[in-house]
Model the fold of this input.
Amino acid sequence: MKLYNSLSRKAEEIMPIQDGQVGLYTCGPTVYDHVHIGNLRTYINEDILRRTLKANGLKVKHVMNITDIEDKIFARSKETNKPYKELTSHFEKVFLDDVKRVGIDLSESTLVRASEAIEDMQQVIIKIPNKYVAEDGIYFDIAKYPEYGVFVKLDRSHSHHRINNDEYDKEHVADFALWKAKQPDEPSWDFEVDGRNIEGRPGWHIECSAMSAKHLGQPFDIHTGGVDLKFPHHENEVAQSHSASGKKLANYWVHSEHLLVDGKKMSKSLKNFYTLADVIDKGFDPLALRLLVLQAHYRTEAHFTWDNLEAAQNRLNDYRAMAALRWQPRKHLKDASTYILRDIPKQFAAILANDLDTPGALSLLSNIATQLGALDLDSENANRYNNVQDFTKLLEFLDDLLGLKLMNVDDISDEQKDFINQREKAREDKDWTKADELRKQLEEAKIGLNDTDHGVIWYPL
Ligand SMILES: [Zn+2]
Done:
């Protein structure tokens, strides 16, 4: 399996440290507000990476942090007059709900809250030789770390100022906070350093260094995140971890590109800042957003417009119509369908193993949907070419790989099947009024009908 490694700036064959097993670390959310759909893009791409590793025979140990201690949280807590823990536990739930809705599976992942890893972070800070204590905290001294700058070209001419803010983005070198001295109205922990107690709380960057090494070892295999985290967050993670242990942090770094809204970066001032709730309010399925994301390769900018989302929703409906064929077996098996159903899983796994080519995988899926729509499925043939079984297996495989929940397309009721038969009869009798009436009733129950050469086929609307 090949992935583009941001460290080497080229596609590389993945060689796990331990045979057959991959350690995967994802930078998680800061839980002070809703995540926006751009953040969701990153998490969806990471979910596809995890699923692709599994489909290619690797066991995945996945760890994600939940940032519940950070500047923005305390600012919001003061602004809204809410205890910070109330804020973080609420938005952690909202986040987990959002990611589930867009088909992200964290059921086998380890989630670690920053507030529960303070001691681990302190242990890393203690081991960093090039740190110094200032009045407002403990800093990483960049001047004493010449390797700084693995991801971006940096201007080192400013090397002697400090930055206390976690989210600076100016691309010049500045000493960053490992630990921040106690502030009023902020939680704090004792921290004994060089014989003195520096009460305070961790800076943001240190949590990922501490948690990844604790749960995955150091180095571990793959570190992921949005491209906006490359600098300073990932740069700082690499520097801290390497400085503290002399070892590399991770072998492969995979970064997901931005999602643009109407051609621009999302921002609250441009009013193009959307959350999953906005998508649902407009009547779209959260999985249509997932599909919109997967239509773009993770290393290219993806474009969100309401029109694009509608196109993705239509595509999702096509896939669901394909999945509904599972309930509508027919005779007259054609040989080609056996090939489609049996050999396709390998093709999907191989396409995605090529640096997560999700657009390629979806075009194959659309192809299959078209071909299967034109073929008959055989239910009564119980020999080894029982296509309904093979088709169900294919859908299960696709759900595991792409997370589009195609197996959730249920059968219709006996009463509805009877409506379809009555409509067929009415059409034979040329009773068009009755046929239309029955069609309308089915449409109200969100069932569409397609009259084909091999009979009528229903699909979910
Ligand atoms: Zn991180």
